């Protein structure tokens, strides 16, 4: 952008703020945004601030100046920073208390950010106080407030060294600032000035610049306590004073070594109890909340000392803070602490139950569906609102009880009057909370209780989560008991499903007439029955098979009755899937009937979930020789209907679930290594390529591309020679996509899949596929060498390194006899790593290490460093094992040295020494995280 005139700038600002036309506002906003990004905005913002034509132009200029200082300070030469500082100081000196607070804040932030990024500006705090204290103390208060706040800003790449340097300077100038604030609070009676003073002190305490030992002489803290004692003080000032005291207590919690100061603060805050009661009496809710917050922080600050003294048999003076805050302290199975804190906890629960009661003045009877309807039928001793409040408190507490806790139901069970109707509501409540993680060892003895609860699931209004708890519990029973318990549990659900099938009423979603509810419960039962391997002979039937046999006729009738309802069929196939996974190869006897029902259903209604179910059948039963003919027949009848659906106009694009399930079916057919099933791939591939050959086909069908890659990955892993040739067709199309303009950036999923494919090729030691690395590497580096390439493509960076260091895995043996049903995979020794893979790592190892380290310290988020550490650790292990050069040392030397934020030579040396000795991923991740802080 060329240097715009001031008239154009004023016109655009006027259009942005004053023009009622939305299009004109948008154009003005875009133009001003481009102007802010240009180098000319520095001079324009300065001139706008000097002319002070109107509020809008001044705010825009102040905001522009702050944004440029924060993000684009590198645009200016270093010798112009002094003139920029003087200009900002001049603008701030001309402000007054009447200046817009937004403009003042933006200018102060600009000066603060500049000071933090100017290491050459030594003693900036004392310079600012000397410059502003006599000219504009109001602006000085704002500057001193925002400087500590900006130290830890993620937008400023200061580096940990600079941050510590600034914090040290703040500590050295704390006495000067404290004296200035004391003089200001004494000489001024203005509430706004007092508010600024309190906020300034709060920000300095937050960065631990104020010495805790000097708290008794701190006039601002005394003023804060004085404000809190007066329940009639202004709300904003009261909030600021409470914030300041809370921050001080937080610092005291981390450094509480002076008992005199502790007692002084405790007594001062404890004296606020009367002010709290006055605030409550006058219904000053905001102030009462501030007091409660202060009391809670007080208890938290002394928490550890209270527990330590109480455990030692003594009583700490801060024990009274529990009277104020009633902090809930829980120490399991330690009776002395329980006895000490129990009265306070009971008072807390009673107070909460009293305060959360509903209003009793209900003029009409509640509707039948209302959540308060049950209280109309109860006959409690007290008012209904007390019962409701007690139940609400119990619910809140129950949510925070760990699932592993084996607490007995309380003696005061609110359902005790209904036990003749509901034999197991207490157990139902508990397992519904614990499921699906019911403890295995303790769940078995409660199976009968859970079965009783399952029979009353509708009356108790519980979800399928209860069924999962039932399944987890009865899975711990002996086989003969487990089989009977499963039949009892499924009988209730099958009975309800039978009623739905026979009923001709319209389905009401979520009601008892909805078959989905019963199917979900059945699915939950089969999903979580965990029968330990080896607990019964292989020849013995699976204990859950009788339950599946009982349920199958009703499931078949449901399939016929609701075949046209996609929602019901989706849940039915899901239920059968979980049942098949549960029983495994033992369900082979049901295959003919199930296959016939699936063929009939798919011929009438082409639900893609049927294909998914077929893939599960292949996965579970393909290892059983007598099942293979039936499976082949099933697939041969399903495939034509699926292909017919996909051959329709836009059929591939409009039926992504069918495409995905077809791929899944073929992947599992191939994974089971049944030669007769592998040939089905030859029909699927041309149709998939037909989709990808359309205009924008690769870009518009990422799921199909991903499935194709996954299929080829499996082909590589399984080492099926007939399928490896498919890569020769897929690769040119993938590279065609990536060669387009911005192809690498716009198709990161494809790049990721390409890397994953080559990773598997290297890991499985397939020589024919390793040569693909030679084509992929230059394209990957081309992507990463673009501007911001490392920052914008973290997944590619991660995959690139995994590709070159992934160790070979053991191969799977195909076409061998299995020893038991369901066991389909055996191991054989891995081939030796090809020399070509090692050559690639040696060639690119230095570049990879440098790119990885640079991305970690400059661009990647902290949560990504775990994966990077794993790759870097394996890379260093490869280096040491093969005597390669010290890639990490070279990478450290190549890191940028022209940045304001950078480590010292000693810090680089220290990081290198610790990193090369690291043998755990977590250890290296921590080192990378700490080292990255020196650059950010």
From TrEMBL:
Annotated InterPro entries: ARM-like, ARM-type_fold, Exportin-1/Importin-b-like, Importin_beta-like_NTR, TPR_TNPO3_IPO13_4th
Cellular component, GO annotation: cytoplasm
Basic and acidic residues compositional bias, start-end: 408-419
A GO BP annotation: protein import into nucleus
Region (Disordered): 405-427
Residues in Exportin-1/Importin-beta-like domain copies: 101-245
Signal peptide annotation: none
Coiled coil: none
Alphabetical list of PANTHER family matching this protein: TRANSPORTIN 3 AND IMPORTIN 13 (PTHR12363), TRANSPORTIN-3 (PTHR12363:SF42)
Protein name: Putative transportin
Source organism (scientific name): Operophtera brumata (Winter moth)
Origin organism lineage: Eukaryota, Metazoa, Ecdysozoa, Arthropoda, Hexapoda
